[in-house]
Specification:
Number of strands: 29
Largest sheet: 6 strands, mixed
Number of helices: 22
Shape: globular
Helix content: 25-40%
Strand content: 15-25%
Strand order of the largest sheet: 2-1-3-4-5-6
Structural class: alpha/beta
Length: 646
Amino acid sequence: MIGLISATAAGAVARDRLAAAWPGRTRVYDGPVREAVGRAFAECDQLVCFLATGAVVRLVAPLLSDKGSDPGVVCVDEAQRHAVSLVGGHGGGANELALAVSGVLGCAPVVTTATDATDIPGLDTLGWPVEGATAAVTRAILDGAPVTLEADAVWPLPPLPGNVAQAGAAASVAPGAPVGAPGAGTGSAPEHDRAPGAGHAEPDVSLAEAAAIAAVPVGGLPGAMAATVAAGVVAEAALAEAAQERSPDAPAVVRVSDRVLDLGEREVVLRPPSLVVGVGASRGAPADEVAGLIEETLAEAGLSAASVAALATVDAKAEEAGIVEAAARLGVPLRTYAAEELARIDVPNPSGAPLAAVGTPSVAEAAALVGGGELLVPKRKSAPEGRAAMATCAVVRKEPRGRLAVVGLGPGARDLLTPRARDEIRRASVLVGLDQYVDQIRDLLRPGTRVLESGLGAEEERARTAVAEARAGHAVALIGSGDAGVYAMASPALAEASDDIDVVGVPGVTAALAAAAILGAPLGHDHVSISLSDLHTPWEVIERRVRAAAEADIVVTFYNPRSRGRDWQLPKALSILAEHRAPTTPVGVVRNASRPDGTSRLTTIAALDPATVDMMTVVVVGNTAAREIAGRMVTPRGYRWQTEGS
């Protein structure tokens, strides 16, 4: 819940705009401001205060306790010019909230957190628990000092700048170089890969100097919105530089491990969600006994509870109070499986007791082993004093799963790139795509992103490469124009992929939709898209589909209508449609829809000159009901009220 507090009439107007934009997410706190802030701070996850920053600082200062639990606080000024992330930028989500508030109110977000300002993911923003000297290691990353990454396995982390290198590999950015500047990239990228800005030498300037010279965009924000970042970056970077000078020789290390480790003064450990604890319990087993057994088992095995991804048990124990409470204490989900499924899993310690009770010879070990993994701790029983054990557990380490996001970029205009697509591009450590599509979004890539690009005709290579990189454990974005699932890369990539990686599809605005929006409303009724390219589909099949669409009186959008070596298919397709439609049937022709050099025109089946069409063009042929109305192509939906009105 987001608490909203205002003190003036103007602030109340802005407050109410925000409340209206986010129904169910906000709560207005009225009354004396000090009391309102106090109540909101105690009851809400985040606060937006329509007050001066100085006033809010004085009001929340006595309430602050811990950055990990305090709510994020954003201030909006009286004129609604700025949304300032004041407290809890990462932990409390204030940085993202400031951006969201600016999107609603039209003000400029002010984010002074150095990692955000330099476009580098903070160690505390990766979604995993982090332990150790977070501030010191973050400063080393920002300062461009060499930082070693030591991971027990490859996990789909976001891109990290070039000064963060795998153990045994050299960092690619010298100490003092501005992190996030062009030329920063992964030290392990092959020479033939073209990383963002690769090959440009950079002057040896500090982060503070770089921030003072140029306002670093926050997530690609332009101009004045980005300029608000620089002053805060200077101050934070100055502290980072001072810390570096105090201990210039102490190595900075980022570890990724589920093991309990002794950390140095400039080391952190990220806790991946790698462990599953299988749990069995007798009816009425106390939560303290179940939770205590899990805690003791992990501690004796040298494993961190922060890496437990889930508890697992048999369906019959889905509502066993002790197990449910143990999962709640760990803050993880409880997964349950049918006894028949668990009975099929080979385990080292089967038993007759659970077989008789719930229908499977193993609960703890089998439930933990569903989906595979390494059995680190075989079944253990609790050891209460004076009575029989009522709980068992086993611990399995799951193999990391790479992540493949298949991302549609839309028709080319930046404002038609969806926020979700933008987020997936920026979280990927490996980007795979056609070179001309990579160029469209190269400015969005974070420092350290490894780019694998190729030319036309290499679709199979790109699909296989993307899947292989995901199988290696990386976070991969495979990009395509329009929607990646429409005549693009999703199909070949998913044909290569198996269930050993996670796949995320990110929809995009298709060329057909972009063209339709320009033409008017040609897709107002049933419609079909047909590619006229016979490179992958025999012409006999294409022709059969065109005839079916013609006979069914469906609006047709032709993709890939004509190329230099393939110039007869469009005239043939139009002639087939003309057998069932009048010569005056409207046809929309859109080239480079939504791009600066885009063109569009309305014509008819009889008047269309195929020679004016190329591979960058979409051709939309109306059905028998389609009309040109006020210069726009319209296909009536057939609403009853429209029919009656006419």
